[in-house]
Design brief:
three-stranded antiparallel β-sheet; 2 domains; mainly alpha; 49% helix
């Protein structure tokens, strides 16, 4: 928790805690212990984020929350005569009001009465309100310069010294897939990669903090070059569903109208099978890390993020693109499909990114059994631990607990298993998928060009 200082000579006084409407209590009853922790997260993020506001804008926000008329008058009487410049007086008043806000948050977080409240989980509506408001604050900062954003995440105590320590260690261990990677020979490019990756991971950690009470939060990385595939499927699905809002979601695979099987085909399959060699299973399964600290070469989101590579080569991607176009637009001729594919690949060949894109997958805990299972490399189900203890294992992994109860016994080099998500169940009404892009301008160009193309060729 961020600590505020009473640097105005005892001028800070205690009163009831009040923040803006985006941080209001779920109801008029007292907070429970569970709600205290989650509300403090949201209040803290908002306090830190608003430090960069224009002084007048920030003072107006604080007048609606902690800077009462009485306190402002007391401040004016005490300090206004000292300053000949109104500019500096306004800045000092802003600092004072922000200190009031942080002091009240600190007082509340240390209130002994919190410990005697009855622990009641959030209702579904309360969870939704908290998560949406917190996420909106988080997503506002995606366009920040990496250095500014990393500092914000440190101030918000998302990028803690411990988190930064394991991120730095992972950077040294993850390795490069290809010797021709520019970062192998150019230290400036390598340092830029580290900075972009740290920003992406910090934002993913922040999203996990928001959703971890109700969801299992996983990460998946893809080459930025193939970003258009996800945008292509998403744009087609929006047209197919007549513009229905999909919220925080990005399609990463084609979703069949009716699935011919469920996740048990894979999760109950024979251990040791390599599912990636089968075209159907390659479409049905998506690999992701529940343990953000995984950095296994070729078997972790961090490896693919840092190397900005996919397993599939260009020929495979051409086949996938053609398949998507034919699925949604059977009226297109082979020549038309070829031209559209070439246009999309021109976007890919002009990709300026040096790291991949990170996707944050939020799976509701109530749906986890039908949507994901722990797996060894290539999708073979992990049977290292008793199945009835899976929920406890998931909670432990999400909380970064690396111990014999979470690690794979058969694979000592793999700290925690990856998870396979069953893509036919990955729909916007069941989960959230948020993308953390590393180049906003390129991302917008790909999305706009893809959506423009789809609007022209799609027919009901």
């Amino acid at each position: 928790m961020i600590r505020a200082c009473s640097f105005f000579g005892g001028f800070l006084v205690g009163s009831s805690l009040a923040f803006s409407s985006s941080c209001n209590k779920p109801s008029n009853r007292p907070f429970t212990k569970n709600e205290n922790e989650r509300w403090e997260q949201l209040a803290q993020i908002q306090c830190v984020q608003s430090r960069r506001n224009d002084p007048e804008v920030e003072l107006q926000r604080l007048r609606e929350t902690v800077l009462t008329r009485e306190k402002e008058q007391q401040f004016d009487q005490k300090f206004q005569r000292i300053f000949s410049s109104n500019k500096y007086f306004i800045k000092l008043k802003k600092i004072y009001a922000q200190a009031l806000e942080m002091e009240k948050l600190h007082q509340f977080s240390n209130d002994p009465q919190k410990d005697i409240l009855i622990d009641r989980p959030f209702t579904e509506k309360e969870n939704h309100n908290f998560e949406e408001k917190s996420l909106a604050i988080c997503l506002q900062s995606r366009k920040n310069d990496p250095i500014v954003e990393i500092q914000r995440l440190r101030e918000s105590e998302i990028l803690t010294p411990e988190n930064e320590c394991w991120l730095n260690q992972a950077d040294q261990e993850v390795g490069f897939h290809h010797k021709d990677d520019p970062a192998v020979h150019n230290r400036n490019i390598y340092l830029e990669k580290l900075k972009l990756a740290k920003k992406a991971y910090g934002q993913a950690l922040e999203i996990r903090e928001i959703f971890k009470s109700t969801h299992y939060v996983l990460i998946h990385a893809q080459s930025s070059r193939w970003l258009f595939l996800s945008d292509l499927i998403t744009a087609f699905m929006k047209h197919k569903n007549e513009g229905k809002e999909i919220g925080h979601f990005q399609y990463l695979r084609m979703v069949p109208e009716v699935a011919s099987h469920d996740i048990t085909l894979y999760s109950k399959g024979k251990p040791g099978l390599r599912y990636e060699k089968n075209e159907q299973s390659a479409s049905d399964l998506l690999f992701a890390d529940l343990c953000f600290r995984n950095n296994a070469h070729y078997d972790s989101a961090r490896s693919f993020l840092m190397n900005n590579k996919n397993f599939a080569d260009e020929n495979k991607m051409i086949a996938v693109t053609t398949s998507i176009l034919r699925n949604f637009c059977p009226h297109l001729s082979s020549q038309e499909c070829f031209k559209l594919t070439e246009k999309l690949f021109d976007l890919a060949r002009n990709d300026p990114c040096i790291v991949g894109n990170l996707f944050v997958l939020c799976v509701p805990k109530t749906l986890s059994e039908k949507m994901m299972y722990p797996a060894h490399p290539a999708g073979s189900p992990c049977t290292c631990h008793a199945e009835e203890n899976l929920r406890n294992r998931l909670e432990a992994i999400q909380n970064n607990e690396i111990n014999p109860q979470t690690c794979c016994k058969a694979l000592p080099t793999l700290l925690n298993p990856q998870f396979c998500l069953y893509t036919p169940e990955m729909t916007p009404d069941q989960m959230k998928i948020l993308m953390i892009e590393t180049d906003q301008e390129y991302r917008n160009r790909v999305k706009n060009e893809t959506e423009k193309m789809v609007s022209v060729v799609y027919k009901k």
